[in-house]
Amino acid sequence: MKKLNIxxxxxxxxxGSIAKGIRKNFPETIITVYNRSENSRIAAYNxxxxxxxxxxxxxxxxxxxxxxxxxxxxxxxxxxxILKNIIKPDCIITDVGSVKTNIHEEIKKRGLNKNFIxxxxxxxxEKTSYFNSDEKLMINAYYIFTPTPDSDxxxxxxxxxxxxxxxxKPVILxxxxxxxxxxxxxxxPHLIAANLVNLxxxxxxxxxxxxxxxxxxxxxxxxxxxxxxxxEICSVNSENIIKLLDKYIxxxxxxxxxxxxxxxxxxxxxxxxxxxxxxxx
Length: 281
Hints:
The protein has 281 residues and is an alpha/beta fold. The chain has two domains: 5-173, Rossmann fold; 178-278, 6-phosphogluconate dehydrogenase C-terminal fold. The protein is built from eleven helices and eight strands. It has helices at 13-25, 38-46, 73-84, 101-109, 153-165, 175-202, 206-211, 214-220, 227-236, 238-260, 264-278; strands spanning 5-9, 30-34, 52-54, 66-69, 92-95, 117-121, 142-147, 169-172. The chain has a five-stranded parallel sheet with strand order 3-2-1-4-5, covered by helices on one side. Strands 6-7-8 form a three-stranded mixed sheet, with helices on one face. The longest helix has 28 residues, at 175-202. The protein is elongated and about 70 Å long.
């Protein structure tokens, strides 16, 4: 593969992990980094991850072949207007946000369809920041791409090859399908975990907290994620989340009725069905 010039706007957990994977597998790559936190920028430079660090999104990015937008979902939009006047004609902007519809719509408004390939690595931790990033986080993770109708197939192939080299598994999806799927397997589960934790908290019984063991901790681990990040994600994907929450609430009400009606067979079938499907993962 040719020597690449890659930019990162935002270098937190995900951006840092991708950058570290690229540096490890493509050591000749020129990596340019902007991050609001000076500490992260300096650390990336001192670690040998970044060749160029900057305190603003400026002409340092003009020669980039690819630019990864790795800031929170709503913040990524802000940088599009800046980048539109900086990037070279064949530069590809990609993002790592867990919601795709909003950025695809903003890309189209700005006439940047040929310069954009949406991205979403299906990985993460409850902890954030560059200092918790690790190239191993990307290994065996599904990495979803949502190209536009005008995305260059050769650029998409090259981007897939980069992501495959750092250990991830590229998957191509339509951006609207992506947002519905992740609402079910990621966004709704975060809301369920948060509400389950608050259910225990609101009982105001410290013994319940004391006895919360492996099962409860496993199912609520993601409730320790960033409140700001998840507030933004849920806001921009609310339509899909509400559709699936309605279905989930209906299922809970059915289970409640089965318990009220003392229907052991129905409860058994609930657990049997879920076990069979979960075991297929």
